[in-house]
Amino acid sequence: MATTNIMTAKTPSRWINNIDMQKLGQHFLKNTAALEAIAEALEIKSGEVIIEIGPGHGELTVFLARAAERSGGKVVCIEKDHSLIAPLTALAEKEKLGLVTIIEGDVLKLLPDVVTAQLGRHSQYKIVGNIPYYITGKLLRVISDLESKPEQTVLLVQKEVAERICAAPPHMNRLAASVQFWAEPTIHAFVPRKDFSPPPAVDSAVIILAGKENFLKNVPPVLPAHYYRAVRTIFAQPRKKLLNNLMESTADGVKKEDVIVHLQKIGVDPGARPQNLGIDQIVAIATAPIWG
Questions:
Q1: How confident is the model at residue 19 (pLDDT cuts 50, 70, 90)?
Q2: Strand pairing partners for 157?
Q3: Residue 176 near residue 165 (C-beta atoms within 8 A)
Q4: Percent of the chain with pLDDT over 90
Q5: Per-domain residue ranges for the chain?
Q6: What is the pTM of this model?
Q7: What is the pLDDT of residue 97?
Q8: DSSP class per residue in 19-37
């Protein structure tokens, strides 16, 4: 999917109120072209549930609700800021957004329960949101731990973070390795800082995380806990060689020579740097008989 730049167009002023916009680190998107691009990137299908994280003033919610209405889906919004709940509810009533449900609370705590509740009636769901930058890493980990993962996740995040998530060897990093275990990331569009109110200090990007199914065909299956343990160990000191990092967490009685042999058996160079490893290689390392 091609990456595009968003042309500036202001959201109608009736969707914006005078609530403290910087509360909870929020920067509200005012560019209708970007809002439309995010909604379109979801490709909402018949009967799907869309979970919106941090709807704010409802700028994106309206676009999502209209798309869901056309496709027979629904939108569930999770908003932490209590002062935004009443305006969101009023907006939903004014715009006649009958397919929108608003839930107050911290998405980092509520998301698993919300997903479980929605899957009781629907088989597929997607996640979308213009999220505060400071919760990006934590949110991605919460999603990665969901038993039933979203078919697709579309997030507006810091541009640099989006680029890190999409990195590949020889630029692999801990964040990319963690996300790419369960999703295939692509940058859909770049959004300049001037398209937000208030403007953040950096530019942003719309990133699409497509859920993976049977994506590792040539390596053994691995438990997520074992995979993330390997990721933490491999990237604990990114400048060090793989072998040196692994020796910090090997099982008792496993010698360096043993680790070298196991790595060579799975086709991994013991002298490789972490940034040069692919996801399939990390999975193979996670399943090797070297761990304590």
A1: very low
A2: 205
A3: yes
A4: 60
A5: 4-211, 224-286
A6: 0.85
A7: 81
A8: S-TTGGG--EE-BHHHHHH
Reported as a single tens digit per residue, the pLDDT across 120-154 is 766 689 999 988 888 999 999 999 999 889 999 99
Q: Smallest Cα–Cα separation from 92: which of 102, 80, 107?
A: 102
Q: How far apart are CA 29 and CA 33, in angstroms?
A: 10
Tell me which fold the domain 224-286 belongs to: Helicase, Ruva Protein; domain 3 (1.10.8)
Instruction: Express each pLDDT in 73-118 by its tens digit.
Output: 889 999 999 999 999 999 888 888 878 999 999 999 999 999 998 8
Partner residues linked to 189 by β-bridges: 4, 206
Mean pLDDT value of segment 161-175: 97
Tokens of 49: 């549930």
> How does DSSP assign 136-196, residue by residue?
HHHHHHHHHT-SS--SEEEEEEEHHHHHHHT--TTS--HHHHHHTTTEEEEEEEEE-GGGE
Q: Give how far Cα 11 sits from Cα of 2, 7, 20, 249, Å.
A: 25, 12, 18, 52
Token code pair at residue 87: 């305006």
Quick one: CA torsion of 200, 75, 112, 185, rounded to 10 degrees? Answer: -60
Q: What are the residues whose beta carbons fall under 8 Å from the beta carbon of 156, sequence distance 6 or more?
A: 29, 34, 38, 129, 130, 131, 191, 204, 205, 206, 207
Whether the per-residue pLDDT at 36 is higher than 50: the answer is yes
Domains 4-211 and 224-286 share a fold: no
Provide the 10 A C-beta neighbour count for residue 228: 20
DSSP element (H, E) containing 126: strand 125-130
Fold of 4-211: Rossmann fold (3.40.50)
